UniProtKB/TrEMBL annotation:
Residues 1-21 form the signal peptide. PANTHER family: DISULFIDE BOND FORMATION PROTEIN D (PTHR13887:SF14), GLUTATHIONE S-TRANSFERASE KAPPA (PTHR13887). PROSITE patterns: THIOREDOXIN_2 (PS51352). Residues 56-83 form a coiled coil. One of its GO terms (molecular function) is oxidoreductase activity. Keywords: Coiled coil, Disulfide bond, Oxidoreductase, Redox-active center, Signal. Residues 61-248 form the Thioredoxin domain. Pfam families: DSBA, ScsC_N. It comes from Falsiruegeria mediterranea M17. This is Disulfide bond formation protein D.
């Protein structure tokens, strides 16, 4: 009977709290068996208790993960918000910062583009930082190298043009297609291509990858909004609510 009673006691402890949890060590074998039978009977009559227990357990797990993420963000604030190389947009003097780890080949990153734009427009006080995080194969890496090289050669405006164009680009990032794209944007195409495989570009992407590993980020898009680490695509209205919560907490 004890084997059957254990889940019941777990459910009882989760629902009522540790203050009301019982210690079976004070019971005799006969008492434990009788108690287990009573608990089993009660749970069979009230099966929703098990579902409620698992829901409480899941809520506690999510809370623990959220708290761990906040600690990770705090421990890596400088690299996240002021690394000295990532492109900065939105309101550079905004009271909170939104960081996006993105990949040009990621469909959800593309879906996030209008949502982020909507958030920045409606709020007006959010600073945006873009982190190049190519994780979806060689085409992703080539695209990121091209974007970062454009920034090194042409500055922030050139990067933003390339960044936006690559997120809309539907083809393969070959030398031919990227040269055509660069020429259409009026960039110094030869200089951009000469820079793509440079140590400076390699180091920038590697630093972002190392930061992502420290934050346990393995997918795109991943956002950091204030102190909140948001894993996955979110519509603008949800990010607006999170921004309000971040401000309220100070």
């Amino acid at each position: 009977m004890l084997r059957l009673a254990a889940p019941a006691l777990t459910a009882f402890a989760l629902i009522t709290g540790p203050a009301q949890a019982l210690d079976l060590s004070d019971m005799s074998p006969t008492e434990r068996e009788a108690f287990g039978a009573q608990v089993r009977e009660y749970i069979l009559e009230n099966p929703d208790l098990i579902l409620e227990a698992f829901q409480i357990l899941e809520q506690r797990r999510e809370l623990a993960e959220a708290q761990a993420d906040i600690q990770l963000v705090e421990a890596n604030r400088d690299e996240l918000f002021n690394d000295g190389y990532s492109w900065v947009g939105g309101n550079p003097d905004g009271d909170i910062t939104l960081v996006e780890f993105m990949d040009y080949r990621c469909g959800y990153c593309r879906r996030a583009v209008p949502e982020v734009a909507k958030l920045l427009k409606s709020d007006g006080n959010i600073r945006l930082v873009i982190k190049e995080f190519p994780i979806l194969g060689e085409a992703s890496m080539i695209s990121s190298r091209f974007a970062v090289a454009a920034k090194h050669v042409g500055g922030d405006d050139a990067y933003k043009q390339v960044h936006d164009a690559l997120l809309e680009f539907g083809g393969e990032p070959t030398e031919v297609t990227l040269r055509r794209l660069s020429d259409s944007l009026g960039l110094d195409t030869d200089a951009v291509f000469a820079k793509m495989d440079s140590d400076a570009v390699t180091q920038e992407i590697a630093q972002t990858r190392a930061l992502a590993q420290k934050l346990n980020i393995s997918g795109t898009p991943t956002f950091v909004l204030g102190t909140e680490l948001l894993r996955g695509y979110l519509p603008a209205d949800q990010m607006e609510l999170i921004a309000q919560e971040v401000r309220e907490r100070g």
